[in-house]
Amino acid sequence: MGVDLEAVEALVDHKTVAMIAETAKTLGVVVIADEVYGHLAFGDISFVPMGVFGSVAPVITFGSLSKRWLVPGWRLGWLVVNDPDGSLKSPKFIGRLNKYCDICGGPATFIQAAVPTIIEQTHDVFKEIHCLSFPYKPEGSMAAMVMLNLSLLKDISDDIDFCFKLAKEDTVIILPGLAVGLKNWL
Description:
Elements: H1 5-11, H2 21-27, E1 31-34, E2 59-64, H3 65-68, E3 77-82, H4 91-103, H5 109-127, E4 132-133, E5 147-148, H6 159-170
Parallel strand pairs: 1-2
Antiparallel strand pairs: 2-3, 4-5
């Protein structure tokens, strides 16, 4: 079942500020795209950012590094305006957009400086942990499942034992695979 665009269009009044791209063009309103979880795509279906419709109607996109990398304390995100026709370039709009951006607290500067290195090296570091293997490439989710190779570990009986010892020794909390029916996965 698809969206009934005519029914949606009928709901629009002078208070409407954003809409679906083609309907937004017809009505002369902006598309606001909250894409903080946009990277979560499943199977063969790719995520399509709304910014690609910027030639149809202006698009304001919100994204978040904090959500993508599961680090809410980083408070890093972005706001992108895709407006090839320049319809949002009025000083009033830009002033309001700047005012909105000033509402949010800024991230710590040391995190901003560390982001490029963190992104580049995270996956490589996981590959170096020899007791973990990645038999399936994650195609979407906020978590990845990895297989725990117990034969490479001393004094670890199973995934639950591994998780308890990791939490106690290194203060790292992870979910044992047994919690979702996969023994010796994390």
